[in-house]
Specification:
Distance between the termini: 31 Å
Number of strands: 14
Low-confidence stretches: none
Number of domains: 3
Mean pLDDT: 93
Helix content: 55-70%
Largest sheet: 5 strands, parallel
Strand content: 5-15%
CATH architecture of the largest domain: 3-Layer(aba) Sandwich
Structural class: alpha/beta
CATH topology of the largest domain: Rossmann fold
Number of helices: 21
RNA sequence: GGGCCCGUGGCUUAGCAUGGAUAAAGCACCGGCCUUCUAAGCCGGGGAUCGCGGGUUCAAAUCCCGCCGGGUCCGCCA
């Protein structure tokens, strides 16, 4: 709805010598403010206030949604009309679960998580998952046909090492991804402690990798078994976080289906490959110091080669493709994009996020130095359960609520931070529910549900919003509600889902403000109906917003 | 050494894209509010030269240059 208001304001400002779009912005002093007078004042050698007044006197307002316009200190302030806020509430109530949707169309492939199958997901990986999954939900809401992929690095050295690790140290009976990590850590430790064996193991690794790439049956079975175990565990973790993938795409697929050969011949045709011992692509014209190796001396391919093939496939199947990657992939990611551009393919849009590190330093699966997502989930869950232990819920309800609150806290904690900011993980903060902003939002939603439940119980659930009954707080709240799709749009444009987390939070704050100062059930006829409409609209916005964040909107807590 | 990212009250962050009206939240701290729709809440208070220095501009947390501090990458690993 706010998008409509904005476009009406822009339309009213058409026909002047400036591009209204670049001067109209949201403001705390108005619903929309235009700052163009400052710019023009200089050119015309007048005071901004004069210029602004002149513009306003020439304004052609045809929209019913623009209630008033005023000039303050050179700012042109636009205010929405009663009609606008009435339409907003009615539109929200009518659209219900569809409120906030856009109709962008098209399709997008979102590749996220894609952690190496050498152990369980740790708290760095799930930052990736949460950004990717939230983005996927928001694209879906925007009317884009979304497919999500987990790209599985099944041909990597780690898998070969793990195969050897299991051979030497066995496979423990526990959650399979954790068992995989034990074998992987064990063989790495063994190599550190027995440097004399290192060469022998490396030779075996190389042989395993070659045989897997050739499609050797026996080796394939070993690799598959390791990868499937790791993936089985990761999938379970992701499901607990409300994250799902449409497909797990194994990189070996692109070796087997000819895409790797195709991408190599495309590069050859452009004369980009230097065939020394290994094959490399020269990117010195693009500012890279070193060539990118795409084929080893022994004839096997590298991660980047298969990734190029994967992106050839993406080019053939999707309009847009977005990858969520840790910032340590920046160099290789940019190299990949530049190579694709050279051969006339579209590069992926990449969302880089900075590391999640521990107070004592960065994590490493290889060294077994990490906090697994499972452990985090379990501890946060237990903490959440403690808080509701005394409530009058059944045991099953308590578990459900604790789970929903725990996952909400986790997801919100990761998503609220801008991707480019590094995070230092802190147990104390992760488990401190006093500062868990997600449960605050869930709580606001539950409060709204509670009022509506009681209204129905009293037999007077009739809703009738009336713009002229609005207090300033109510007006402010409704204006915020109208901005749902503006927030969705912004996430799509900037690929930064944290701005949406902020939006939902703002709605919750405004709702709680309204809640404590505006009695609903106790109010008289019209006011009661009017406020019930606001409560229901807030309920819808909070519920839809939480769902986009992958958080369960509880009705009681 | 080079590239990229980060640096905002004591702590964690938002705002930076497209410069604009007293820099916004949470935690922590201080003081209030449960016979009234869920106190996982609300209200009030103290606390910030927006890392430092320059520049552009009527106007800079936001743009430009330099510096400092932290992170990260620079493998025939992924």
């Amino acid at each position: 709805m706010f998008r409509q208001f904005r476009s009406d304001v822009l339309k009213a400002l058409e026909g002047f010598s400036f591009k209204a779009e670049s001067f109209v912005k949201e403001s705390e002093h108005a619903d929309l403010a235009c700052t163009v007078a400052f710019k023009l004042a200089r050119e015309e050698k007048k005071r901004p206030q004069e210029v602004a007044e002149e513009i306003v006197s020439q304004l052609k307002i045809e929209s019913d949604y623009i209630g008033s316009v005023e000039v303050v200190n050179g700012y042109i302030n636009f205010f929405a009309s009663y009609e606008f806020i009435e339409d907003t509430i009615n539109y929200i109530l009518d659209s219900d679960e569809n409120y906030g949707s856009l109709n962008l169309g098209g399709d997008v492939l979102i590749e996220h998580t894609s952690a190496n199958p050498d152990g369980p997901l740790h708290i760095g990986h799930i930052r990736n998952s949460i950004i990717g999954d939230t983005l996927a939900r928001i694209f879906e809401k925007a009317g884009v046909d979304v497919t999500t992929h987990y790209y599985v690095n099944d041909m990597g050295r780690q898998v070969a090492l793990t195969v050897l690790g299991i051979e030497m140290f066995g496979f423990e009976d526990e959650k399979p991804d954790h068992a995989v990590a034990k074998a992987y850590v064990a063989i790495n430790r063994y190599m550190d402690e027995h440097p004399e064996k290192k060469e022998e193991i490396e030779a075996k690794v190389e042989e395993l990798m070659s045989r897997y790439e050739e499609g050797d049956e026996e080796v394939s079975r070993l690799f598959r078994s390791v990868v499937e175990k790791a993936l089985e565990g990761a999938g379970e973790t992701l499901k607990n976080l409300n994250v799902t993938h449409d497909e797990y795409v194994w990189e070996s697929r692109f070796v087997r289906n000819g895409y790797v050969d195709r991408i190599i011949s495309m590069l050859e045709e452009k004369g980009l490959i230097q065939k020394d011992n290994a094959w490399t692509v020269d990117l010195s014209n693009f500012g890279y110091d070193k060539n990118v190796v795409i084929r080893r001396e022994n004839g096997t391919t590298l991660y980047v080669t298969r990734d190029l093939a994967y992106h050839l496939w993406k080019n053939e199947n999707f309009e847009r493709f977005i990858n969520i990657l840790g910032s340590d992939h920046k160099l290789i990611g940019n190299q990949l994009s530049d190579i694709l551009k050279i051969i006339g393919l579209k590069p992926p849009e990449i969302v880089f996020f900075e590391f999640v590190s521990l107070p004592e330093g960065s994590m490493s699966t290889r060294k077994g130095k990490f906090i697994s997502a499972d452990e985090l989930i379990e501890k946060v869950y237990r903490e959440a359960y403690e808080i509701i232990r005394e409530r009058e819920f059944s045991e099953e309800q308590k578990r459900e609520v604790a789970r929903a609150v725990a996952i909400a806290a986790l997801r919100y904690d990761f998503i609220r931070v801008s991707p480019e900011k590094p995070i230092t993980f802190d147990w104390k903060k992760a488990l401190d529910f006093e500062r868990q902003t997600a449960s605050y939002i869930q709580y606001s939603h539950a409060r709204a549900c509670s009022i509506l439940r009681k209204a129905v119980g009293n037999g007077m659930p009739y809703l009738e919003f009336a713009g002229e009954l609005c207090t300033p707080q109510e007006r402010k709240l409704v204006m915020l509600l109208s901005k749902f799709s503006t927030a969705v749009e912004r996430v799509i444009r900037e690929l930064r889902p944290n701005v949406f987390a902020d939006y939902v939070m703002d709605v919750a704050i405004a709702f709680n403000d309204f809640y404590t100062s505006h009695p609903v059930l106790k109010a008289e006829k019209e006011i009661r109906m009017h406020r019930l409409a606001i409560v229901d609209a807030c309920r819808i916005v909070l519920r839809n917003g939480l769902e986009l964040l992958g958080i369960e909107p509880l009705e009681r807590m």
